[in-house]
Design brief:
The chain has 1133 residues and is mainly alpha-helical. Among the domains are: 129 residues; 178 residues; 130 residues, no CATH class; 127 residues, no CATH class. The protein contains 52 helices and 4 strands. The strands form 2 sheets. It has a two-stranded antiparallel sheet. Strands 3-4 form a two-stranded antiparallel ribbon. Helix 2 runs parallel beside helix 4, helix 6 runs antiparallel to helix 7 and helix 33 packs across helix 36. The chain starts with a helix and ends with a helix. This is Ion transport domain-containing protein. It comes from Aphanomyces invadans. GO terms for molecular function: monoatomic ion channel activity.
């Protein structure tokens, strides 16, 4: 059956569903013969679930009941595979919905009842999860539905009684209840192992079991059971029913009664007239009351009509208890493990008694239990304990490390075998290929953690899945397999995986047909038209003028997946794969031949007419469309003159282009800007996304290109008297910049460019560029290197300026924040001046022993407010940038023509680091605190605020004195002095350590030999080694002569024996420590200061007398061109 026919009948079924028309469903059930048709119907019903929705037809009486029966019959017919049964049982008609339908329809022995019973047997009961996941209430309701329908055997008994009253009863056909035997018995055989008998009520069970007792006595005979399968199923049902009934004697056993029925040649007579038997039974009474009559009639029949001596056929496998002791069911290996290991609980090991089967076969032999025996309900009192033993054992085996290792090794070996299968390439294994590709894809995508997913991708690539994928794409002709391969390729590359990309590149170079297949499929998608697909049955669609299908969505989804796969191959700007996709290099930049062709096509006259088009009489939508068209036309004009050095097209534009139309459109764009954005461009990011405003910049850039070619146009295009045009021209002129670049003449990217053409590039300034503060601009220019690679260093440092521009643009949305941050430098200067004024008041009015004057307190609190404002401004302006800089410190480098090239692995590491959010909410606070505490500038401002608060609140004017030291930050020279100390800090620290160690040595020598010379003014400064060391450091540095200037003078003429050693001691200390080490430190500081001043002067001179972009000095421009100022203002601005 063609799929289109099935789709059309499903649509008709949906259309006629309100009228409960079942003929279309009957047709679908009739044609669902082959597996392909059944599978197609399942997929179409999954796409159109309203076909099998029973909610809206149940209120239509008998017609609705018949329609539901048709739905169940269709689902039963197509659910021939486990996947189809699972879909039907979980999505279409579930167990709960089936019970609701059965209860609403009051199903009896009619067509709906038997169809529902067949659906229950063939679909629901075959899906174990649907039964085992039911709650207790649903179990009871399901049993009630089965029991109520089974009681229809009363009709069969009545029919047998009427049959016995007929005169020709000897010639009648065997009275077999075919629906009962064909549908109810197989259903019960499947349902009994899953029945939870503990939830059932005694009254319902007794009536139901009594009905079966009466039916078996009245209907079963050797002539009835002509089929061995029916006899086996009925025998097994009797055993299950005995388990529920628990007969006290053999006379009450259904199995015994069934055995008697199998032995007799004819069933007992149950007619009401013309009979010799003394028993007359009323089958309208409850079955429980009929049981006694059946027992009496059974004894009468046994005494008057002995049963045949023919032996009964061999019974089926015995029904065993669902849970048996561990030793009875596990293999011998497991039994040994249980007996040797100590993990089995003592209460489990104590239960060593063996339990036999609850039902013994009629032949007395033990039969092999079927797998369903393990799913039987628990009837014994000991079943819960044995169940715990088995559960413990299964859990132990499942959690054991050897089990996990064995499963992992087995899966790895299986995966290795699967991906190496060459048969996946063959057309007859398409279904297997699709399933395996889906399995691999879902396995990768099911892993949420990025690193674990990357490890899975690498593992699959290691076992060869990438090679199989490229091979399948290259050789398969099946569209479904191709789509699954693309989807799997996306999963393999998701999140960027450099190694897999490189592996794909190596395979793509070997399989040139792989990328050709993508081109083929994309060409097929672009040329596929909906009208090409045959639809012979659409014209017969009732009351449908338009039909909607999923084909376009599927087509676009397939194309999107293919482009996504190709994009992931080039993730991270992987040039090797990009070159593979480009093939022959088409050229770098615009194509000169194409530019000439377009310019010669008489296009400029159409452009003139379009630019003069008035939009006053158009609607709002039409105006927007015309503006978009004008913007595109201007972009086209710019593309014509891009990289043109021969000026051929410039000449044509000057001759044919209407310059007045350009000027008029420039005024219109400026008026639009003034009306839309109220003249606010600086900091307004929305302006950068406005296409019509961008057209104004493009018009200005086009005018500059034409002026460069024809300087005489300057008088025409530069405004003179027209105020509107002068305002518009000034606006775009102020916000456009220009640079010159050397465009390589070669079009081969592999060739190294030797020379090129000098081309002027105009570009509009982004609105956030004006948000760059003077401090950030000065810091950027001061930090940039002045050697040959200044542009590289400049681009490496622009990330800080870009962050600050975005941040300042954001702050402009808050007036008080913008005001505070824009005047932060002036606020710091005011705070310093105020601190000087405060300290002057303290010097004049404050007395050491008196209370602080009121004026000093007021000025102090004002100073606190100024310091608090500085801290707030710093936190608003600098701390967010500081956090971002620390967050992405290692992943923000921007390289331009750098000699150090990143590998693809490095790019992947940076991409993952940028996309990976390592800051959890609980760690974000600690991160902010650590960054703030380690930032010297932040702690400096906080310290100033703390000192101001302490001086004002604690009444300690001393703390205000430290604020005057802020002059170091206010003076450029003093900052260089502080830098002269900080920069050589490591060297100064080493000099200080050497000085302290030398002083320790001299102190030790003095304590050993010259302790008597340390006594001065009745005090000996060298009584201990520690005191001698402190005296050596303190007095030796303060006295001009070193330690000798402090010690008692020696008298060489008085016969002092330590006079000459004392002379050597003093001279070594003075020369070595005071003269050499001290002056080395001073010289290091002075040299550093001089170096810093020289560098600063060179930078200032470079900024003043040399172009930053081209590095040409001022003298050259003044001698050969219009001057250095003209160059920096108009050419490289």
């Amino acid at each position: 059956i063609p799929p289109d026919v099935l789709v059309q009948f499903i649509r008709w079924s949906i259309f006629f569903k309100p009228a409960a028309e079942t003929r279309f469903l009957a047709f679908l059930s009739g044609v669902a013969i082959s597996a392909h048709t059944q599978r197609s119907l399942v997929m179409q019903i999954a796409k159109n679930p309203e076909v099998v929705d029973t909610q809206d037809v149940m209120g239509q009486g008998v017609a609705g009941r018949s329609y539901v029966a048709a739905i169940l019959h269709l689902l039963t017919t197509i659910a021939t595979t486990s996947e189809a049964r699972d879909m039907c049982a979980e999505s279409f008609v579930t167990v709960a919905r089936w019970v609701d339908l059965f209860e609403q329809c009051e199903a009896d022995a009619d067509a709906f009842g038997f169809v529902a019973i067949k659906y229950l047997d063939d679909v629901l009961l075959q899906h174990d999860d649907c039964v085992y996941k039911m709650d207790d209430a649903l179990h009871v309701r399901l049993f009630g539905a089965v029991r109520r329908f089974s009681l229809c055997i009363r009709r069969h008994v009545h029919a047998l009684a009427q049959l016995d009253m007929r005169d020709d009863k000897a010639a009648t056909v065997l009275s077999n209840d075919v629906p009962m035997i064909k549908h109810v018995l197989p259903m019960l055989v499947t349902y009994f192992p899953k029945l939870n008998a503990a939830l059932l009520g005694h009254e319902d069970v007794d009536e139901w079991l009594a009905a079966w007792f009466v039916w078996v006595f009245c209907a079963v005979s050797r002539a009835t059971l002509t089929d061995a399968g029916v006899e086996s199923a009925l025998h097994l049902c009797m055993r299950w029913l005995d388990q529920l009934w628990k007969p006290t004697s053999d006379s009450s056993s259904l199995e015994q009664l069934f055995d008697e029925g199998c032995r007799r040649s004819a069933r007992p007579f149950i007619g009401l007239s013309g009979i010799a038997e003394p028993f007359v039974m009323d089958f309208d009474k409850p079955f429980v009351e009929l049981v006694n009559d059946v027992h009496a009639y059974r004894l009468y029949c046994a005494s008057n009509n002995p049963t045949s001596a023919a032996s009964s056929p061999a019974p089926p496998d015995a029904v065993v208890m669902p849970i048996v002791p561990l030793e009875d069911k596990l293999p011998p290996l497991h039994v040994d493990v249980v007996r040797k290991q100590s993990w089995l609980p003592s209460w489990g090991r104590a239960k060593k008694k063996r339990h036999t089967s609850a039902v013994v076969p009629s032949n007395g032999k033990s039969s092999k239990s079927s797998p369903r025996a393990f799913n039987m309900p628990s009837f014994g009192a000991y079943s819960s304990d044995d169940s715990s033993i088995v559960a413990d054992f299964v859990q132990y085996v499942r959690d054991h490390r050897q089990t996990k290792s064995a499963i992992r090794n087995e899966l790895s070996a299986m995966m290795q075998s699967i991906v190496c299968l060459e048969m996946l390439k063959h057309a007859r294994f398409v279904k297997m290929s699709v399933v395996l590709l889906d399995v691999f894809t879902r396995t990768i995508l099911s892993i949420e953690h990025d690193r674990k997913r990357r490890q899975m991708q690498l593992q699959l690539d290691h076992v060869g899945l990438t090679a199989v994928l490229v091979d399948l794409i290259s050789h398969t002709d099946d569209v479904q397999v191709f789509d699954r391969c693309v989807w799997l390729g996306i999963a393999m590359l998701d999140g960027m995986n450099a190694r897999v990309q490189e592996r794909f590149h190596a395979l793509l170079t070997q399989h040139a047909a792989c990328l050709g297949k993508f081109k083929l499929h994309l060409d097929m998608l672009t040329h596929t038209d909906g009208t090409r697909k045959p639809r012979p049955v659409v014209c017969f669609s009732p009351k449908t003028t338009t039909t909607r299908t999923d084909e376009p969505a599927t087509k676009y989804q397939s194309a999107a997946r293919q482009f996504r796969f190709l994009q992931l191959l080039c993730e991270g700007h992987y040039g090797a794969n990009q070159q593979c996709m480009l093939g022959d290099y088409p050229g770098g930049g615009p194509c000169p031949e194409a530019q000439v062709c377009v310019a010669n096509y008489k296009l400029i006259s159409a452009v003139n007419e379009l630019l003069w088009r008035d939009t006053n009489d158009l609607t709002v939508t039409a105006v927007d469309l015309v503006r978009q068209l004008k913007a595109s036309v201007v972009v086209m004009l710019l593309s014509l003159v891009e990289r043109r050095v021969d000026h051929e097209i410039h000449r044509r534009l000057v001759q044919e282009l209407n310059l007045e139309a350009i000027k008029a459109n420039l005024i219109v764009v400026h008026d639009y800007f003034a009306a839309t954005y109220h003249g606010q461009y600086d900091g307004n990011v929305a302006c950068s996304r406005d296409a019509f405003l961008t057209m104004g910049f493009n018009l200005y850039i086009l005018m500059q290109h034409l002026v460069e070619f024809e300087p005489s146009l300057l008088s025409t295009l530069v405004p003179a008297d027209d105020v509107a045009y002068r305002t518009a021209y000034a606006f775009f002129d102020d916000r456009c910049a220009r640079v010159e670049i050397v465009w390589p003449t070669t079009r081969d990217p592999a060739a190294r460019p030797i020379g090129g053409d000098l081309v002027s590039i105009y570009f509009p300034l982004h609105p956030i560029c004006v948000c760059l503060t003077d401090r950030a601009k000065r810091r950027l220019l001061d930090d940039v290197s002045r050697d040959a690679n200044r542009l590289d260093d400049f681009y490496d440092k622009t990330h800080v300026a870009m962050l600050e521009m975005h941040h300042q643009c954001t702050l402009r949305g808050h007036a008080w924040m913008a005001l505070l941050t824009q005047h932060l430098s002036q606020l710091k200067l005011a705070a310093f001046v105020w601190s000087v004024f405060l300290n002057g008041l303290i010097v004049v009015y404050n007395e050491l022993d008196s209370r602080t004057p009121f004026a000093v307190q007021v000025v102090g609190y004002v100073h606190v407010a100024l310091c608090a404002a500085i801290v707030a401004g710093h936190c608003i302006n600098d701390v967010p940038l500081l956090l971002v800089a620390h967050r992405h410190n290692d992943h923000r480098t921007l390289r331009f023509d750098s000699s150090v090239e990143d590998t693809l692995d490095d790019v992947e590491a940076k991409v993952r680091a940028v996309s990976d959010d390592r800051l959890l909410p609980r760690r974000r606070g600690w991160f902010v605190l650590s960054v703030v505490l380690w930032d010297a500038k932040t702690m400096y401002h906080v310290s100033l605020l703390a000192l101001a608060v302490g001086g004002a609140v604690l009444d300690m004017p001393l703390l205000f004195a430290f604020h005057v030291l802020d002059i170091v930050n206010q003076s450029t020279e003093l900052r260089y002095i502080s830098k002269a100390i900080v920069h050589p800090g490591k060297s100064l620290a080493h000099i200080l350590i050497l000085y302290m160690l030398s002083a320790y040595v001299f102190g030790f020598v003095g304590a050993t030999y010259f302790s008597a010379y340390f006594e001065k003014d009745g005090h000996n400064g060298c009584t201990t080694l520690w005191a001698c060391f402190l005296t050596s450091v303190d007095e030796g540095f303060k006295n001009n002569g070193g330690i000798g200037g402090y010690l008692v003078p020696s008298r060489r003429d008085a016969g002092d024996r330590l006079a000459y050693p004392r002379f050597v001691y003093d001279m070594l200390y003075y020369v070595g420590l005071v003269v050499i080490l001290t002056n080395v430190a001073f010289g290091l500081i002075i040299d550093t200061f001089a170096t810093l001043r020289t560098q600063h002067k060179e930078k200032q001179d470079d900024l003043k007398d040399r172009c930053f972009i081209c590095s040409i000095d001022c003298y050259t421009f003044n001698r050969m061109t219009k001057g250095f100022e003209h160059h920096t203002r108009y050419e490289h601005n």
